[in-house]
Design goal:
This protein has helices spanning 11-24, 41-47, 62-68, 107-110, 139-157; strands at 2-6, 28-31, 56-59, 74-77, 83-84, 95-98, 115-118. The protein has 160 residues and is of the alpha/beta class. Helix 1 (11-24) packs parallel to helix 2 (41-47).
Length: 160
């Protein structure tokens, strides 16, 4: 399994996600342009001293990322009408793809993915912005939930 971030903007989120990747021993793919430099102090601080434990791959753009990952399933995450996370069956070689914090994944990227997944939120905002409810989860939280569920399923399938 791998995680990919499409044009991440907030260094603290990416640092937290890198820390989760280190904990689960999975690579982190960063698809440029990034909204920060990899030397950013907030990125480094959020990842603590775990950076040596995570493999970070950078891709100049989404096309170069897709070229490098042609044999793997791309599982996109969005609040937009995906299969619910609990109902999806992950495989060992899946790549979990997450979008920008401000705009998510563009439809053009979702269309190139193999599956679209949504995390169920019982108090999600629907309709206009005057309605109460949560618009979305924080990127690092959504990524952590997805990593955990995928890892749990894969280990169960493998008898662990």
């Amino acid at each position: 399994m791998e995680v990919a971030l499409f044009e991440p903007r907030i260094p603290q989120n990416t640092g937290n996600i890198a820390r989760s990747c280190a904990a689960f021993d999975i690579p982190l793919n960063l698809i440029e342009p990034l909204g920060f430099k990899l030397e950013d102090k907030y990125l480094k601080r959020a990842g603590l001293d775990y950076w040596p434990l995570v493999t970070v791959n950078r891709y100049e753009n989404f096309e170069k990322f897709m070229t490098a990952k042609t044999t793997k399933r791309i599982i996109s995450f969005s609040k937009k009408n995906g299969l619910y996370l609990k109902d999806f069956k992950f495989k060992q070689d899946d790549i979990l793809l997450f979008g920008r914090e401000d705009s998510g994944l563009p439809d053009s990227i979702i269309d190139k993915s193999d599956f679209l997944i949504s995390i169920f939120m019982p108090n999600i905002q629907t309709g206009n912005n005057d309605q109460k409810g949560v618009r979305s989860l924080n990127l690092s939280v959504a990524c952590g939930i997805a990593i955990y569920e995928a890892h749990k399923q894969i280990n169960f399938q493998n008898g662990n």
